[in-house]
Amino acid sequence: MSYFVGIHSISQLKKEYRRLASTYHPDKGGDSRQMQEINAYYEHVLRRLKIIQRVTRRRQAATVVEAEPPQHNSRYQEPEYDKSRVEEPVYQGESTKVEEKTAYDNSAGQSSWAVDFRHVRVGETLYVNGTECEVLCVKTDSFRIVAKGRARQAIFSKEGGRGKYNPRLHASYDNRHKKHTTQV
Predict the structure, then answer these.
(1) Helix and strand numbers, DSSP H then E, in the chain
(2) Nearest CA to 56 among 7, 6, 93, 104?
(3) In whole angstroms, what is the distance from residue 169 CA to residue 100 CA?
(4) How far is residue 74 CA from its own chain's centroid?
(5) Integer Cα distance of 24 and 86 in angstroms
(6) What is the DSSP letter of 146?
(7) Which of 45, 95, 113, 182 has the lowest tally of Cβ within 10 angstroms?
(8) Cα 150 from Cα 163, distance rounded (Å)
């Protein structure tokens, strides 16, 4: 289940989180595991939105051309103002371009963050085909996880979250394959 699909701002995310928390919080009669999933997914989407916000600010700052500073009549000579430094774009290394591409590629308006594992960290909880897992090791292009309570391990590509040696395995931040049970 994807909880935060179609969210494009931090304020929308917070509003949706509050709505979900009022429904699924254990103190309100909800399931604690489901609330933990919502919390994990909220943190992930919040990180992604902050990256998008930072990239947008950098983009805007790169296009702004500042005016000449006022001339001072003082006895100290100020260094000459260099306009070329202002017009140069702010650092946009490879990681920023890739983040921009991931964040803005999705023209259908659906969230593409569920398959973005470039910023996965050791100790994070992920789900592989419905099984709760923990990240053990992170490398430049892959990460290794272990199923919680089991000895099963697998290596996944950071791009797309597919199993590196077993393409039937698919990692996600939320438990999409969870069997929904009806409470009576």
Answers:
(1) 4, 5
(2) 104
(3) 27
(4) 50
(5) 49
(6) E
(7) 182
(8) 18
Closest CA relative to residue 129, chosen from 164, 176, 181: 176
Helix (H) or strand (E) holding 127: strand 125-128
Q: How far is CA 53 from CA 9, 44, 94, 96, in A?
A: 9, 14, 17, 12
Please state, in angstroms and rounded to a whole number, the distance separating the CA atoms of residues 64 and 165.
47
143 membership: H or E segment, kind and range: strand 142-147
User: What confidence score (pLDDT) does residue 8 get?
Assistant: 83
Residue 142 has pLDDT above 80, yes or no: yes
Quote the mean pLDDT of the chain: 75
User: 75 vs 78, 89, 122, 175, CA distance in Å?
Assistant: 9, 34, 58, 68
Query: Side chain identity at 109, as an amino acid letter?
Result: G
Longest dimension (CA), the chain: 84
- For the record, the structure tokens of 78 come out as 């100020």
Rg (CA), the chain: 22
SS3 46: helix
Going by pLDDT thresholds of 50, 70 and 90, the confidence category of residue 91 is very low
